[in-house]
Design a protein that fits this description.
It is built from 8 helices and 3 strands, in the order αββαβαααααα. It has helices spanning 4-52, 80-85, 102-110, 115-123, 132-143, 147-173, 189-205, 233-236, and strands spanning 62-65, 74-77, 89-93. The chain has a 3-stranded antiparallel beta sheet. A hairpin with an 8-residue loop joins β1 and β2 (74-77). α1 (4-52) crosses α6 (147-173). It is elongated. It starts with a helix and ends with a helix.
């Protein structure tokens, strides 16, 4: 008959074996899922870039305003020539959207170095029993987006959660959660979001940092920066 110490030792070995087996199973499932999602991203990303940043995206449509103040008239023009003819200034490339207003435009500038991380915190609100309303509230209250703009962000974040969750879990394992690089050679959660959710999000929001020609915490190729947007955002929003 085994002693209590021997029985405890056997129980501990079985417990350790169970934990190790469960962890290996978790790694296997995550890696298989991430591989499948990365394949989808690689297939979709070139088409997304072509749709959102075609050669003519700096020609029109263009979102512009008549003055850089909270009371500005902000509207969409078909071409850059129409913007100049109306004596307006470019706010961002592409048509105006739900985030093309003073409050949300200012947030694109003032949060440019940490918005991606804050948005990631908001989508985490939907984990472990959280709801879309929790994400929406975070986007409105924690980040400060207006309701309609926050809705665009919430829909994008939930899209990313649905399509990129295994890539995100894999990034947690290899300590790359804060890697927001976007490109075919580096399939991060940000790349997945861009490829699979960007075609809905960008037209919804209108304003994005890239479209406003803001250099942000996510490196972007110069060909995707709206270089015709020449506002000095630090002066416009009185924020360095």
């Amino acid at each position: 008959k085994r002693s209590c110490v021997e029985q405890l030792a056997i129980a501990f070995k079985w417990l350790l074996w169970g934990i190790t087996s469960a962890f290996h199973l978790y790694l296997t499932v995550v890696n298989i899922g991430a591989t499948a999602q990365q394949k989808n991203v690689r297939a979709a990303l070139p088409g997304t870039f072509a749709q959102l940043y075609p050669p003519e995206f700096k020609i029109g449509p263009i979102c512009a305003w008549n003055e850089s103040t909270p009371n500005a008239d902000i509207q969409t023009f078909d071409t850059i020539d129409e913007v100049y003819a109306a004596n307006y200034s470019v706010v961002h490339c592409g048509a105006c959207g739900a985030c093309s207003n003073w409050n949300d435009l200012s947030l694109q500038w003032t949060t440019r170095t940490f918005l991606a991380e804050e948005a990631q915190k908001c989508v985490q609100k939907s984990l472990l029993g959280g709801t879309a309303d929790d994400v929406q509230e975070c986007n409105e209250e924690s980040i400060g987006f207006t309701e309609q703009c926050a809705t665009c962000w919430t829909e994008d974040q939930l899209c990313a959660k649905k399509n990129c969750v295994f890539i995100y879990l894999q990034s947690m394992i290899v300590n790359q959660v804060s890697n927001f690089n976007v490109g075919l050679g580096d399939i991060t959660s940000a790349t997945c979001d861009e490829a699979l959710c960007g075609p809905e999000f960008v037209p919804c929001s209108g304003a994005t940092r890239r479209r406003m020609n803001i250099i942000s915490d996510i490196p972007r190729p110069i060909s995707q920066q709206c270089t015709i947007a020449t506002e000095n955002w630090a002066e416009v929003f009185n924020h360095p």
